[in-house]
Amino acid sequence: MTNIILCGGSGTRLWPISRTLLPKQFVKLFLNKSLFQLTVERNSKLCKSQFIVSNAEQYFLALDQLEELGKKNNKYLLEPIGRNTAPAIALACMALEYDEIVIVTPSDHLIKDEKEYEKVLKKAKELASDNKLVTFGIKPTFAETGFGYIESVNEFDVKAFHEKPNFETATSYLKAGNYYWNSGMFMFKAGVFLDELEKYSVEIYNQSKNAFDNASKDEIIRIKHDDMMSIPEDSIDYAVMEKSDIVKVIPSNINWSDVGSFDALFEELPKDKNGNTKNDKHISIDSKYNLVYGNERVIATVDVEDLIIIDTGDAILVSKKGSSQKVKRVVEKLKETNSQLHNIHLTGHRPWGTYTVLEESNGYKIKRIEVKPGKRLSLQKHFHRNEHWIVVSGTATVTVGNETRYVRPNESTYIKMGEVHRLENEGRIPVVLIEAQVGEYTGEDDIVRIDDDFKRD
């Protein structure tokens, strides 16, 4: 059995913790592990391999976090642009044998009752082996209006799928007892799913097949941009599950959460004696039931209750609990102003390591750069800035123009605007350096890559 892990999405309702280039599934929120890592650990007990479907930026995050877990035998499919879950799952299934059973999971869900989860998966595997399309219905614990519902009959049969309801309708679903939250998890044979997709959404199937056939298939399957754009955008529910007559639902009481909002996150984090989330940086004076997140500055609260307080160094969010669904409107406002705060943290993750913005103003930017052993940045140049590099630790191999030399701790080098250059770590410990950029524009998009080990544009 293969676990297809869908890594799309930017988790806008968890901004500023979640950003486009470090979405919530890769943030280490639970015992220094990410939701993605917990997903891999949970499913690798029953699956022989992981099949990661993501964009290029998230691929490198997944690669790093899988290395931390020591997980190998992984497959990767990179989408240049998202077209929803039906194409993503179809493209992955096209890379597998017809009879390979797959468990399709989002990468950002939390499941705490793993014993019950294993029982649920074993029952689902029985049905999938019998050529059924299986979905997992979460037993609702309250009248949630933010989820779709699955109406069941005769235990495993699906009567209907329902859109997100209003509160009155959700309350009636809860009382009825045969309605379940739609978890977004599925199990089936790869070939059976593709047969049903071709039967009910032939254009998605045909364009996905064309995109897969044209894809680069070295160690990683890379779909071409124009081919991806030609695939109609649709979810697996609309494209197949709501139309097929071989769908089954497994009622699942697995202590599940999609951690889709700060209110949901608050419920999952450990609390102190006053009901506040535990945080060594939080000084609480007569404050109760608050979610306080931040590990850079001290956060002091006095006589406040039921607040969400998030500090990420470059942004602060303060909200009432119960209103956190509106956070995505903040992200919309940021996009309107061309801010990068929705896109990236002060610390950016790259396939070669990380960089942290220490200070930035008009005409200059100062960064801390850390390059992993054996990695190197792209061979590149900039049109709008000069760069000064000062090595703090490790030995950097620096190429500027036709010259390559070693730069050791407390030594520096200078790269003029327009010069071709590269930074490499040939050693066994990380290279740490301070980079001072000076120029009229210091944005991250002022990079022309001439050669890149990671095949980025």
Structural account:
The chain is an alpha+beta fold and 457 residues long. It folds into three domains: 256 residues, Spore Coat Polysaccharide Biosynthesis Protein SpsA, Chain A; 65 residues, no CATH class; 105 residues, Jelly Rolls. Helices cover 24% and strands 34% of the residues. The protein has eleven helices and 31 strands. Strands 1, 4, 5, 6, 8, 9, 10, 11, 12, 13 and 14 form an eleven-stranded mixed sheet that branches. A six-stranded antiparallel sheet has the order 21-22-23-30-25-28. Strands 17-19-20 form a three-stranded mixed sheet, with helices on one face. Strand 2 and strand 3 form a beta hairpin. Helix 3 packs across helix 7. The radius of gyration is 24 Å and the shape is globular. The relative contact order is 0.11. The model has no long low-confidence stretch (mean pLDDT 94).
